[in-house]
Amino acid sequence: MGGEFLTMSALERERERASVLRQVAARLITQETAGELLGLSVRQVKRLYRVWKRLGDAGLVSRQRGRVSPRRMEASLRGRIETLLKAKYPDFGPTLAAEKLCELERIDVSREAVRRIQVALGLARVRRRRAKRVHSPRERRPRFGELIQIDASPHDWFEGRGPRCALIVFIDDATSRLTALQFSPTETTVAYLCALRAHVLAHGVPLAFYSDRNGIFRVNAKEAESGDGFTQFGRVAERVKIELIQASTPQAKGRVERANQTLQDRLIKEMRLRGVSDIPAAQAFAREFMEIWNDKFAKPPLDSTCAHRPWTAGAEALEKALARREQRVLSKALTFSVGGKVFCVKTNGPGTALRGARVTILHFLDGTMRVEYKDRSLLFTHFKTNPGPKPAEDEKTIDARMAELVAAHAQPSRPTTVVPQGCG
Questions:
Q1: Mean pLDDT score, 214-233
Q2: Does the residue 176 lie in any domain?
Q3: The whole model's pTM is what?
Q4: Which residues on neighbouring strands pair with residue 246, listed in sequence order?
Q5: Distance between CA atoms of residues 62 and 58, nearest Å
Q6: Same structural domain for residues 265 and 373?
Q7: Which of 66, 169, 356, 361 could pair with 326 in a Cys bridge, judged by C-beta atoms 3.0 to 4.6 Å apart?
Q8: Domain shared by 155 and 206, yes or no
């Protein structure tokens, strides 16, 4: 379709030139006027007029018509590219496909050439740009570590090879540099805290986090009259001195929103090429992918001074700062309950001084628990488990719960043997 359109345009242009030159020959218009009509200089009109007087209308035909372009791709190379695009990269965008053809197949071809081949093969289509609402861009923060945009992207990251999961994304506002990627079955506070731990250990403590208004980051319940007004993540941010800022619209934190879209395209395909199909393997690949991303997309900051504050207290202190905390009062038998389970504090003596004592329960990211009383740890043991209802599910956890049910029902059940009962 495009070739026919270009051919017709060339024919129309040549017919128009012939008509104007006939008027010049009949002295109806001047060569200067002819140049204005044709969009050519007077010198070019004179050259065309001399050729037309000598050869007629045939002299106006382009000499390139019918010739093969010297830059035309060889048929064998084009055939190889078409085979690879159809078999190995059918849903890759032209930019990523061109990169992979160069990186993995040693074929150096431009993005535009790949796009044209994809259109010809029906793997891509020409899309008309739609008018979008204009959002005034906010200037980047000048220093690396001033503002880290954070968000989660629940998606089918393994394309059916594994369960759906969420990806926690930390990206620096000043440089568009990925600082942490954390895969998790669902978007949870623990997943964000794991990403926070990785960020602090790698770069230090940032000045502020920029997030949405999810309940992980702020208390949204209007009827909440008790408490300190902080979520679990908010309390951790308070302990490590990180300011929490919530965006009013998704466009306000467009850096991380656009990163999520690009990750859902590039990261998915990179994991497909490497056969990654579960969360542990994806998490192991995340560090390598962040290096690939930052080499390609990261920008230099306006101010080379780093805004991160170094964490000098050590890894153990960081684990304690990230731990979830609860308050409990010990019974006369020195017991306390957490999550439907009853625990008993162990002492060397009678332990009467601990009766009615208020203790702090620390829940660490690795699932372990510690009981502290007046800056010392208490030994405890599991006593019993109280029956209770299963936890309620919401839109963030229902996919993981259903994946467990589907996997459980997909396992073949053992045949049961029916023993016939006697008649007496």
A1: 76
A2: yes
A3: 0.73
A4: 211
A5: 9
A6: no
A7: 361
A8: yes
Domain residues for 236?
Answer: 147-219+229-297
Assess whether 291 and 350 both reside in one domain.
no
The pairing of beta strand 369-373 with beta strand 376-385? antiparallel
CATH of the domain at 287: 3.30.420.10
pLDDT in tens, 41-83: 999 999 989 988 888 888 787 776 767 677 788 889 999 999 9
3-state secondary structure the chain: CHHHHHHHHHHHHHHHHHHHHHHHHCCCCCHHHHHHHHCCCHHHHHHHHHHHHHHHHHHHCCCCCCCCCCCCCCHHHHHHHHHHHHHCCCCCCHHHHHHHHHHHCCCCCCHHHHHHHHHHHCCCCCCCCCCCCCCCCCCCCCECCCEEEEEEEEECCCCCCCCCEEEEEEEECCCCCEEEEEEECCCCHHHHHHHHHHHHHHHCECCEEEECCCCCCCCCCCCCCCCCCCCHHHHHHHHCCCEEEECCCHHHHHHHHHHHHHHHHHHHHHHHHHCCCCHHHHHHHHHHHHHHHHHHHCCCCCECCCCCECCCCCHHHHHHHHCEEEEEECCCCCEEEECCEEEEEECCCCCHHHCCCEEEEEECCCCCEEEEECCEEEEEEEEEECCCCCCCCCCCCHHHHHHHHHHHHHCCCCCCCCCCCCCC
Average the pLDDT over 270-285 and give the result. Answer: 95
Same domain, 169 and 255: yes
Q: How many domains does the chain have?
A: 4
| Residue appearing with tokens 């051919």 | 7
